[in-house]
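Q: What residues go here?
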């Protein structure tokens, strides 16, 4: 019997299929066809090594990748996140707020910023740098970032948890809900085991993938000592990325608490073998790993899923998972009451410790809106929102990941989805025609998780269902797919595709609000640093405001302004990626200040306003990802998830109906894309 419990020397070449490319501010997976997934990919030798007589116990079945380099090979040599110079942070802050404030507000805010720089700022900055020197194992923002998430008492529903949806499989027999779920469970567990065995390919950004993502590079890295591994990699223009968040992908749950939550990671060894399944508000569990920690046969997993669906149990009157959507203090009180019963405490910990959750939805996505709603929230009780990772599969076989956000920033989830999807396409274990496994008895293997509820806890569930329905009914969802506008058009004109998308958002809001601009957030990963999280790209600039004015009135001469917008956006993106924005530094300084004697800059209404991000934007791109989305981050805001492809841009817009009009904003956005397209296409044709 094969047991893989540690890293071992292997003759297999490095996988290479999951290394990231970088485009502007986000990490993107290389666009490659399935038939060209690299001579260095592990997938070809894996197929040849299958032992068909007992394939579920073979090494190829058990592992997704067997990297020549240990997964965390570069972690020790990653640099620490820099703290910008205070004078530079204040300068960047003043530049960022300029297009957002009136003349009088700007004058006041500039005065407060200058006062802060000359008085309280240096003392707080010195405290921050001293703390940073005493905590060299992490970044100055990591603990603060965790604390901000875990202390927020708002519900995770729409406020935090995003989704990422996967494109459909081109093979109809694999789009069967049970087959699709089984393949994702098996491949997801392969990813988990490869990660835990230190055999998952390290995360590396290749500046020029053709030159550095090669057998020579990976071979050379095996002889470079770990303590200087990053510097050896940089010689190839290949930048290693932080992987500290990956350990929270599995067996991890956010637990509600009084005033502050905690991130619970199963500490039992060996780790629990089960996964949880939610079907129609009912909660089940079964062991997907055997007593030796090996993934069980795919036919057995398929049998267990078919059994759960065949039970066809009605939605319970009090669906337990709905509680996870309550505001955190309320959910904490409900969980405390539930745990007064020892059996309930054990069952809740069973959910907490599960590898991940699989949601088998009873409905099929009919259109984009229903797909987005399924990914974001589903029906009350169909998502365990505290779980670090849930794989949702609807009746039509559409797959989406729904995840809690405090433990990580999405990079690990996108990597997981990309690698796992490739595995399901290359090495699917089952199809619709696969027979169930008659050697297993699902009645003895599948366990239904039912807690004991009293009148108090039943009322908590009733309140949760009502809250769930009230909040989700107010959510408005709109979308736009604009053909002919994409990377090819932008690159032909020497402008950044992401900068043009951000300009379109700014121009749309300018039209929508009759000449106003709004605080805008674009997330930028700082994963090139140890325990890096994100920095803010403030995409609303003086350049985008001027371009919006011109595009509205005289777009014929707008090309120079578009290029200025692109230049400015690329500069902001580069600074943010290197940890040289202004937001995280100011946030840390505010946390080090005395709340009783708060600096006037941080107490200013103008400072509060410029940090209320009416436009919150995020992009994700991969040949396997269909879309991603999230709720607005402020009550009067818009959540904008977008993807830019070669000749297409797609946007998913969310807002609350009682504060904004999403339909009007989408109309303004389409006009914006049309105007920018007319400028760029005319230049290209000329």
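A:
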């Amino acid at each position: 019997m094969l047991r893989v419990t540690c890293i071992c020397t292997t003759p297999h070449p490095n996988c290479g299929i999951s290394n990231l490319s970088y485009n502007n501010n986000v990490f993107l997976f290389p666009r490659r066809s399935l038939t060209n997934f690299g001579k260095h990919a592990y997938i070809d030798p894996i197929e040849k090594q299958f032992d068909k007589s007992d394939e579920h116990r073979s090494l190829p079945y058990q592992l997704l990748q067997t990297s020549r380099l240990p997964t965390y090979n570069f972690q020790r040599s990653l640099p620490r996140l820099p703290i910008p110079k205070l004078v530079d942070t204040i300068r960047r802050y003043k530049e960022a707020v300029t297009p957002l404030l009136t003349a009088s507000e700007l004058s006041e805010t500039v005065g407060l910023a200058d006062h802060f720089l000359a008085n309280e700022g240096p003392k707080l900055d010195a405290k921050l740098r001293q703390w940073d020197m005493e905590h060299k194992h992490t970044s100055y923002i990591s603990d603060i970032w965790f604390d901000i998430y875990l202390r927020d008492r708002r519900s995770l529903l729409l406020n935090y948890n995003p989704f990422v949806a996967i494109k459909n499989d081109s093979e109809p027999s694999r789009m069967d809900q049970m087959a699709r779920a089984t393949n994702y469970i098996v491949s997801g567990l392969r990813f988990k085991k490869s990660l835990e065995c230190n055999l998952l390919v390290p995360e590396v950004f290749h500046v020029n993938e053709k030159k550095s993502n090669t057998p020579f590079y990976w071979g050379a890295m095996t002889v470079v000592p770990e303590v200087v591994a990053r510097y050896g990699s940089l010689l190839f223009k290949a930048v290693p990325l932080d992987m500290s968040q990956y350990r929270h992908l599995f067996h991890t749950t956010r637990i509600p608490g009084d005033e502050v939550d905690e991130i619970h990671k199963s500490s039992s060894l060996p780790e629990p073998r089960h996964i949880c399944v939610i079907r129609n508000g009912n909660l089940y569990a079964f062991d997907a790993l055997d007593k030796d920690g090996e993934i069980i046969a795919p036919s057995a997993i398929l049998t267990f899923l078919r059994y759960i669906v065949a039970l066809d149990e009605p939605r319970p009157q009090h669906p337990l998972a709905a509680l996870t959507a309550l505001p955190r203090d309320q959910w904490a009180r409900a969980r405390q009451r539930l745990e007064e019963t020892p059996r309930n405490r054990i069952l809740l910990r069973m959910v907490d410790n599960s590898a991940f959750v699989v949601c088998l939805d009873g409905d099929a996505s009919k259109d984009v809106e229903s797909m987005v709603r399924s990914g974001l929230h589903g029906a009350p009780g169909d998502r365990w929102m505290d779980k670090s990772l849930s794989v949702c599969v609807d009746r039509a076989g559409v797959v989406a990941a729904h995840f809690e956000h405090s433990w990580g920033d999405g990079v690990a989830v996108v990597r997981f989805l990309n690698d796992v999807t490739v595995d399901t396409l290359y090495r699917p274990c089952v199809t619709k025609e696969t027979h169930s496994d008659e050697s297993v008895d699902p009645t003895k293997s599948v366990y239904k998780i039912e807690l004991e509820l009293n009148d108090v806890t039943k009322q908590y569930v009733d309140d949760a269902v009502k809250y769930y329905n009230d909040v989700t009914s107010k959510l408005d969802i709109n979308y736009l797919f604009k053909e002919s506008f994409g990377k090819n058009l932008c690159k032909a004109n020497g402008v950044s595709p992401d900068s043009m998308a951000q300009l379109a958002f700014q121009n749309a809001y300018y039209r929508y609000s009759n000449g106003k601009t709004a605080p805008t957030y674009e997330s930028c990963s700082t994963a090139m640093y140890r325990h890096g999280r994100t920095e803010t790209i403030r995409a609303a600039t003086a350049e985008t405001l001027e371009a919006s004015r011109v595009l509205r009135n005289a777009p014929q001469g707008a090309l120079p302004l578009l290029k200025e917008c692109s230049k400015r956006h690329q500069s902001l993106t580069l600074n943010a990626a290197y940890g040289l924005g202004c937001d995280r530094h100011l946030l840390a300084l505010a946390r080090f200040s005395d709340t009783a004697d708060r600096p006037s800059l941080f107490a200013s209404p103008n400072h509060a306003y410029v940090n209320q991000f009416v436009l919150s934007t995020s992009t994700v791109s991969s040949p396997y990802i269909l879309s991603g989305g999230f709720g607005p981050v402020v009550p009067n805001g818009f959540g904008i998830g977008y993807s830019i492809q070669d000749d297409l841009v797609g946007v998913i817009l969310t807002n609350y109906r009682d504060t904004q009009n999403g339909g009007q904003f989408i109309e303004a956005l389409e006009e914006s894309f049309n105007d920018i397209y007319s400028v760029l296409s005319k230049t290209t044709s000329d």
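A: Context that may help when evaluating the design: The chain has a mean pLDDT of 90. The first strand starts at residue 21 and ends at 23.
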